[in-house]
């Protein structure tokens, strides 16, 4: 798979030759920080999108700061293990967190959350976003998402749909879609995207939520048909494919994000410097083009803007989780 190969290539360090020089974006960085090695905790296994983004950014931060910036993978409990480690770290900017929307979801999914996503972290930057796409397998004779309700009513029984995990953003948004569309759907969680795609192709599951890059790749073969895009905008990889909102189904407008955090109480000057330097990296046009090929849209926001996004997201996902009655413990 093209996306998987490129992720592995970037994660292995070969991206340096592909992406070229970033330039002198951090020429004005404060020499007092960091002064020694910085650790960036990724609360997921190596090789995934969050890990790749972290390694790309960390490699360039290390060059800018003249200090090692080390990626430390701490997977488990929907990202809570790694996030809790950062929440308890010294607020000096030397221990950071690179994570995804699960940061604000996990406390509602687990009865005993080990952190508060608003109180325990200092947001640095929303570095990137990515689209998730609802697709139909080859056995499902539906071309547009608006045709699903009539098709399921004609069948007289629920349709199965797969996601990359119980309690994931895709799972929660599909539960919203099922309520809005009054669709009887049965969730089948998979351990990752590849097993889900294999079962979609084999007809074992009728619908699935996969990355825009995977959806675009398989759409070219005609074996998997994209139906609608989750989030507020269309995917640049599937410009002809409407969002759920455009197709008439409201409530699925939240975008999945990749963000950088420090522990709460980290001095504002350090947070602002890290944000400025990281945003300079993701603003590089060559890097943006390369990552867009695998469906990752680099952004870069201020700490204040990211903090506002977190408040909105926390309320949205908490409501979605209550409505879906999803618990992971």
Q: What does this 3D model show about the protein?
A:
It is a single chain. The chain has 329 residues and is α/β, with parallel strands linked by helices. It folds into two domains: 2-129 and 255-324, Bordetella uptake gene, domain 1 (D-Maltodextrin-Binding Protein, domain 2, 3-Layer(aba) Sandwich); 132-229, D-Maltodextrin-Binding Protein, domain 2 (3-Layer(aba) Sandwich), CATH 3.40.190.10. Helices cover 41% and strands 19% of the residues. The protein contains eleven helices and eleven strands. The protein has helices spanning 2-19, 49-65, 80-87, 102-109, 148-155, 169-181, 193-202, 212-219, 268-282, 285-292, 303-324; strands at residues 38-42, 69-73, 95-100, 121-130, 132-136, 159-163, 185-189, 207-211, 225-229, 256-263, 296-298. The strands form two sheets. The protein has a six-stranded mixed sheet, with helices on both faces. A five-stranded mixed sheet has the order 7-6-8-5-9, with helices on both faces. Strand 6 (159-163), helix 6 and strand 7 form a beta-alpha-beta unit. The protein is globular. The protein starts with a helix and ends in a 5-residue tail after the last helix. Mean pLDDT is 90; it is low at 14-30.
């Amino acid at each position: 798979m093209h996306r998987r190969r490129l992720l592995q290539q970037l994660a292995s360090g070969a991206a340096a030759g592909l992406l070229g020089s970033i330039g002198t974006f951090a020429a004005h960085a404060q020499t007092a920080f960091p002064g020694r090695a910085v650790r960036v905790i990724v609360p997921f296994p190596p090789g995934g999108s969050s890990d790749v983004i972290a390694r790309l950014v960390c490699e360039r931060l290390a060059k800018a700061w003249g200090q090692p910036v080390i990626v430390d993978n701490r997977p488990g409990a929907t990202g809570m293990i790694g996030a809790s480690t950062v929440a308890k770290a010294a607020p000096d900017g030397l221990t950071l967190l690179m994570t995804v929307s699960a940061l604000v979801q996990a406390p509602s999914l687990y009865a005993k959350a080990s952190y508060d996503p608003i109180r325990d972290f200092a947001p640095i930057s929303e570095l990137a976003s990515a689209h998730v796409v609802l697709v139909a397998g080859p056995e499902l004779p539906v071309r547009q998402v608006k045709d699903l309700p009539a098709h399921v009513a004609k069948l007289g029984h629920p349709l199965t749909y797969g996601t990359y995990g119980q309690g994931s953003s895709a799972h929660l948004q599909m539960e919203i879609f099922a309520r809005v569309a009054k669709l009887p759907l049965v969730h089948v969680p998979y351990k990752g995207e590849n097993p889900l795609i294999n079962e979609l192709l084999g007809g074992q599951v009728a619908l699935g939520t996969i990355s825009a890059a995977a959806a675009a790749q398989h759409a070219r073969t005609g074996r998997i048909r994209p139906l609608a895009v989750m989030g507020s905008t269309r995917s640049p990889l599937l410009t002809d494919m409407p969002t759920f909102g455009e197709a008439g189904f409201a409530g699925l407008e939240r975008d999945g994000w990749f963000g950088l955090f420090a522990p709460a109480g980290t001095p504002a000057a350090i947070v602002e410097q890290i944000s400025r330097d990281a945003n300079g990296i993701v603003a590089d046009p060559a890097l943006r083009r390369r990552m867009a090929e695998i469906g990752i849209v680099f952004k870069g926001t201020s700490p204040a803007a990211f903090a506002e996004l977190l408040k909105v997201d926390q309320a949205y996902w908490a409501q979605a989780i209550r409505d879906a009655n999803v618990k992971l413990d």
